[in-house]
């Protein structure tokens, strides 16, 4: 029963934080440290619950993905003011190449409580800089995003390979610096998160396949279910919040969280 409660807690943490600019991986590492839920099974569990959050976005954005897929099959890539598969692909390339190339080094050196604390602070500073930098908004909606902006956002997404930096935090900040509105950057972040996270979780699950035992399936399934349900709610809520809430507040939260965990670990 204790493991199942841990699974629920971890699933809720993942679902709540995956698409907020506060770093779900960082929260998962720090929460697991608090719950003393560590080791190979715990690392595999963290990958499984991420899949729950991915499925939530896939369900919520299903119609948009199907539209992009249909346009791709019909070779419709040049329609003005319309997000297409090329935007998605060029935004995924940078993090995909670096993530695959440095996967082992990232897992070995960056997945720890102290490195997460540093990343929370660094990511918060980037968000403040992005929000306060004067810029001309050229993309109010996702359909206004250019290929150049999509690739630039993909470059900023590479920062999320450092656990604690946050995928949504880095890409939204990048979008703001490159001339998109906050809402357009957030929407595009959610859109590209599914293929990126599916690729990352597939690699991690394959490498952790020996730890996927039948005895641990209840733990994995309850964590995945909790993550899926909470992520569904969180995505809808975040899209509404992003219209009103400044990134500054998320940055302050990150600084406070980093300070609390640093003091706790002293």
Automatic annotation (TrEMBL):
Q: What is its EC number?
A: 3.6.1.27
Query: What does the entry give for GO biological process?
Result: cell wall organization; peptidoglycan biosynthetic process; regulation of cell shape; response to antibiotic
Which cellular compartments is it found in? Cell membrane
Q: Name one GO cellular component term.
A: plasma membrane
Chief place where the protein resides: membrane
Looking at the UniProt entry, the stretches that span the membrane are 44-62, 83-104, 110-129, 150-168, 188-206, 218-241, 247-265
Keyword Phosphoprotein listed: no
How does this chain sit within the bilayer? Multi-pass membrane protein
Q: What is the similarity comment for this entry? A: Belongs to the UppP family.
Cite any additional comment in the entry.
Bacitracin is thought to be involved in the inhibition of peptidoglycan synthesis by sequestering undecaprenyl diphosphate, thereby reducing the pool of lipid carrier available.
Name of the protein in question: Undecaprenyl-diphosphatase
